[in-house]
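note to self — DONT lose this again. spent like an hour looking for the file last time. sequence + predicted structure for the chain T wanted, 139 res
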Amino acid sequence: MSERGGAQMEQVQIRFRFDEGDDEGEALRSLYRRLYRDPSLERTTKVELQEAPQEEGAMGGAWETVNILLTHATALSSLAVSVAAWRQSRPSAPPLNAQSNGTTVTVRTDDPEAVRRLLEALSSADNSNSDDSGDSSEG
């Protein structure tokens, strides 16, 4: 995908997951629905819900991650706004872990600018193959 004005970017994959407080994957499914239905992400972002490996003898697997593939620079800001709005609508949501290329940041805030900075850190780490990790206790 090519665009003028420096808006193109390498593709960046981000995985969202909750390590605690997500009863039966309800928060993860809710986040997925929010991101999947967001019209501002429609053309620049691929959103998928990924199932965890099924345990032996289980009837079905649990939802493990929401995978995001950003294909356009403007998608990062749109994604941040959408995640922040989702967190605002769910004040009791557990901390959201975002991972890209071995780097993880934890989103605890519903401030779109703070979420954008965290996601930009992942995007920068992805492009530089950094193993640094970040954490935000804002919010």
